Amino acid sequence: MGEAIGVAGLVLAIPPVVEFLLHVTQKLKEVVRKYKEAEARLHERSIILKDHFIKLELELEELRSLSPDLPQDVYTHFGEMFVILKEKIAGFDSELDDWLASKRFRRLKNVTTSIDTMIQTVDWWQRRIEDLFEQLSRFPKPFKDPRIPDKNTALGRVKLVSQAIFEATENTPEKVELPRDLRQLPSSVVFIPTSGSLMIVERKQLDIAAKKKELEAMTKDFIDLARILSAEDIANRGILKCCGYQRHEADAAKGVGVQLFLAFEVPTSLKNPRSLRDILLDKDFKGQIKHPLDERITLTKQLARAVLHVHSKAHVHKNIRPEAILLFENADGATRGFPTRLGTAFLTGFERVRKDEADTVPIDNLTWAENIYRHPSRQGPSHPDDKFNMLHDVYSLGVCLLEISVWRSFVEFEKHSSVFVKVNNTKACNLMEPARDGLEPRMLSPKLIQEKFIRDARARIPVLLGTRFSEVVVKCLTCVENFDNEAKQDPFIVGLRLVFSFFLSPLCTMRLLHC
Length: 515
Hints:
Blueprint: H1 7-13, H2 15-34, H3 39-66, H4 72-101, H5 108-138, H6 154-169, E1 182-184, E2 191-193, E3 199-205, H7 212-228, E4 242-248, E5 259-265, E6 270-275, H8 276-280, H9 293-312, E7 315-316, E8 325-330, E9 344-347, E10 354-355, H10 368-371, H11 390-406, E11 411-416, E12 419-424, H12 446-459, H13 461-465, H14 467-477, H15 479-489, H16 491-503, H17 506-512
Antiparallel strand pairs: 1-2, 3-5, 4-5, 6-8, 7-10, 8-9, 11-12
Helix pairs in contact: 1-4, 2-3, 2-4, 3-5, 4-5, 9-11, 11-14, 11-15, 12-14, 15-16
């Protein structure tokens, strides 16, 4: 389409879409009457198409209401999508004219096929546009929201219904009895039962020295998190549905503080959970990639959606790394498992999640294998004015995307004496300083590690997953530096722009969001 269309041009270009919607609907009625012998079949298709048109008209109304307050780049992207859709509808409109003007009857099969193609096209773009509005609705907005719960307006009625549905999907978390025979999945942060039904369990260890008031506050936040993760449709967001929680009291004799557990349901269609780290370390692969590249694209989409959902609930994750990413095989056995198919991915590792507005709890005792997924500003002594925010999660996401792109674990295990220890996999991404005579090799500083990641994203990803994906990863890895000053003034607009740049760039419109 060339250069992005200006906002003023879009304001003029969008209204004809509504006119086309009305025009095409009227012509479809005429086509239905012309083909009387197939009226029922064509009428059903015209109703489906009209349903899409009504939704699009509501969304156009909302876009015009939002336009004065949306960032220009976001609004421009919206408008470009509507302009493309208008061109698609215009082509179909011309085809309808040909049908109505022709004295000869077209073969009914050709007519229905053409209408079905139009329905599929509109449906594809409809889902793209709905996804944009969903991102807007899930972010706290500093701009005016026209979808106020006012039953006297169409959009207000839609808002009232959607609010009721949303509130109904989040369940009150309940205490659950957990199996006694839990074992930790290899190279992961979660536990599963050794027998019985499959479930995923996460554990949060509270400080044994914490005061009673602090423990109660943390337990309350934990239960609130369980409620958020209990929504019926949360699996569509790349997160397993939480089915309950459990609290174990402190045992001073054993030196164990209060322990909190979250239990997650596993859909019956899935089996054999493995962490992304475990898959990347699998020696049976012998360094060979045996899955289609689009499997990795799908994996990144699932992971990014999960991070977005956590942020949309005004929480930060703080623990995004391959150990916290689970992949499941399909239980029906219709497709081969790892590594031919990567399966369905879910984000886990919620033991460090906290509300965005809450104060940061410093975590200074992490190993290097965890620190490489944290932004340099979040390593070492913490600063009161530099708390962990959503941009730091985006940085962690960028490191994971780089690792998924090269499809090699940055962390591996070496046997020293009788113990396996974690070491940097220099073949995947060398994070070690150059060797010096008589000195043990040392890891690069956090800032130099970040610079190494950025260089690799620019140099290695283009030949693996394309230039645009490389740009997405670089944007994630540099988001704190590029957006930090702006974020302090208007954090949600910055977060929104990051989401749009990741999900709604041409790369993601055509690849990451294409189902």
